[in-house]
Amino acid sequence: MSQTVNITISGLCLFTPGAFGRMVCLLPATGASAGDGSVPFHFPLLRYDAGLVESGAEKGLDITGLELCLGLGDGALDPSLVRGVVDLRPYTRAGVPVHLMAGDGGGTLAARVEFTAGRMRSSGTLSCWTMRRPGHSARERVELTNAVVWTATLGDGAGPLAIHGGALGAGESDPLVTFRRDVPVLGLTLSHDVAHEHGGVPPVGAQAEHFEAYRWLLDEYAAWQLPRFAGQGACNGGGGVFGFGGSPFSCMVAGMTPTP
Predict the structure, then answer these.
(1) Please, are residues 168 and 67 in contact by the beta-carbon 8 Å criterion?
(2) How confident is residue 198, by pLDDT bands cut at 50, 70 and 90?
(3) Distance (Å, rounded) from C-alpha 194 to C-alpha 31?
(4) pTM: predicted TM-score of the whole model, two decimal places
(5) Is 39 exposed, middle or buried (0-12, 13-18, 19+ CB in 10 A)?
(6) Is 19 helix (H, G, I), strand (E, B) or coil?
């Protein structure tokens, strides 16, 4: 029996293609001791129903300080970013330092998660913001979202979804949880949000202050800026609100495409 795995990912999560054809999700460190201390603490959690577990942690995982690998089989991996996941590269002229992709992060990472197969699809709440490319005077409209879904299919001959993990940069990995294979659709949630929903709809022109956490995941020469709020829904005025909870106007996901 094939099995569909859907992992809803919300909050401060930066997606960038990694080594060996994998997608890497970097969760930036937050709180008083991270960066310049301006971004409140976000909780990095992996959650799921205990009834889905074959062996291992039944109550979900606090993944602070961990690197995880989600064994999603040997199917294809599509590294494309979807609507609402802004590519930071053209707005910063920077990339992600190599040591963040494999090392301990030097205090700038809360956690790192790798996906071996699958693709991203839209979810969450879509909103319109503005950003400016370095060297340009005008600001561009960009759409941001607070959540996406990573989806993969385990074929008939594939084993169960098994998550392995260990301390960031330790180079060691142990089995943490294995899920049942007899469930047609397996749903998990990876979140990196504040403890409660952060405020309401911001005023036009307000900065996405929690985005500051991504600054510490980029090369030192990054031309850094914060997005400014332009309105709810899609930038073209059409729909675009998908309804996932959390903090839709403060804890938004982002991406970084490879160096050209």
Answers:
(1) yes
(2) low
(3) 10
(4) 0.93
(5) buried
(6) helix
Rounded distance, CA 252 to CA 214, Å?
10
Residues 6 or more apart whose CB falls under 8 angstroms from that of 135 comprise none
- Distance (Å, rounded) from C-alpha 4 to C-alpha 118? 10
What backbone torsions phi and psi does residue 19 show, to the nearest 5 degrees?
-70, 160
Structure tokens at 213: 């956490």
Length of the chain: 260
Cβ contact 110:14 at 8 Å: no
Q: Residue 211 in contact with residue 85, Cβ under 8 Å?
A: no
How many Å apart are CA 230 and CA 53, to the nearest integer?
43
Nearest to 244 by CA among 153, 161, 141, 147: 147
Query: How confident is the model at residue 196, as a pLDDT?
Result: 66
Is 80 exceeded by the pLDDT of residue 238?
no
Q: Look at strands 119-122 and 147-154 and give their pairing.
A: antiparallel
What pLDDT, in 10s, does the model give residues 139-164?
999 999 999 999 999 988 888 999 99
The two three-digit tokens of residue 167, written as one number? 């301390």
SS3 category, 122: strand
* H/E run at residue 100: helix 98-102
Task: List b or e across 178-215, with b for residues whose CB sees 16 or more CB atoms inside 10 angstroms.
Answer: bbeeebeebebbbbbbbeeebeeebeeebebebbbbbb
